[in-house]
Amino acid sequence: MKKVFALVAAAAACQAAFAAGVEAQSPWARETVSGMKNGGVFMELKNDTAKDIVLVGGSSPAAKSVEIHEHVHAEIKDPKTGQKAMGMKMQAVPGGLKVAKGESVTLKPGSYHVMLMGLKQPLKPGAKFPVTLKFKGAPDQTVQVEVRANAGSPGAHSDMDHGHGGHGH
C-alpha cells in the first residue's frame, strides 16, 4: 500500500510541476529569402506559474543572437527622401516581455516576436531548429521551431527585412 501511495504522490507532484510552468505553444518561424539577415519566431507563451515572468532573450544555433522585439506605430524617416511619416517600425522590448501569472501572450507577425539576428543561413519551409528562451522568474526553455512557407502573401517578407532603425543591427 505504501508503494501505491508513493507512486500516486509522485505522479501528482509531476503533474503539479508540469501544470505550474511556462509553456511555449506552437513555435514557428516564417521562411526567409537569400540575403535576409534576420527572421522572426512566433508562438503563444502561457504562464501557469504563481508569479509574473519575463521573456528576456534567448539563443539559437540558427542565429548570432536572439532578442525580443515588437512592432510599434512611430514616426519614420524615409532614407531616400528624408521625409518623415507615421508608420510601423520594429524595436527591442526594453526589459523583456512580461507574461503575467495565469495569463498568455501571443507572439505574432506585426506584434511581439522573438527576433533572430544574424541568421547563419536562410530559413527554409519544413526545416526545424532549436531556440532556447531565457526568462526572468522561470527556467530557460528550449523549443523546436518549424519554418513555415510565406504562402505568397503580399509583403510576406517585408516585415522581417528591415534595418532595425535605431538598434545598430
Describe the structure using short key phrases.
Lxx211020-like, ten-stranded mixed β-sheet, mainly beta, 10 strands, disordered C terminus, globular, 169 residues, 48% strand
Instruction: Briefly note the CATH topology name.
Output: Immunoglobulin-like
Which CATH architecture would you pick?
Sandwich
Count of discrete domains: 1
Mean pLDDT figure: 81
Going by CATH, the homologous superfamily would be PCu(A)C copper chaperone
Helical percent range? 10-25%
Proportion of residues in β-strands? over 45%
User: Stretches where pLDDT falls below 50 for ≥5 residues?
Assistant: 4-19, 152-169
* Count of discrete alpha- or pi-helical segments spanning 4 or more residues: 1
Oligomer: single chain
The rough form would be described as globular
Q: State the secondary-structure class.
A: mainly beta
Keywords: Signal
InterPro entries: LpqE-like (IPR007410), Lxx211020-like (IPR058248), PCuAC_sf (IPR036182)
Protein name: Copper chaperone PCu(A)C
Report what the structure shows.
The protein has 169 residues and is mostly beta strands. The protein has a single domain, classed as Sandwich (Immunoglobulin-like). The chain contains one helix and ten strands, in the order αββββββββββ. Strands 1, 2, 3, 4, 5, 6, 7, 8, 9 and 10 form a ten-stranded mixed sheet that branches. 23% of the residues are buried. Mean pLDDT is 81; it is low at 4-19 and 152-169. It holds the Pfam family PCuAC. This is Copper chaperone PCu(A)C. Keywords: Signal. InterPro entries: LpqE-like, Lxx211020-like, PCuAC_sf.
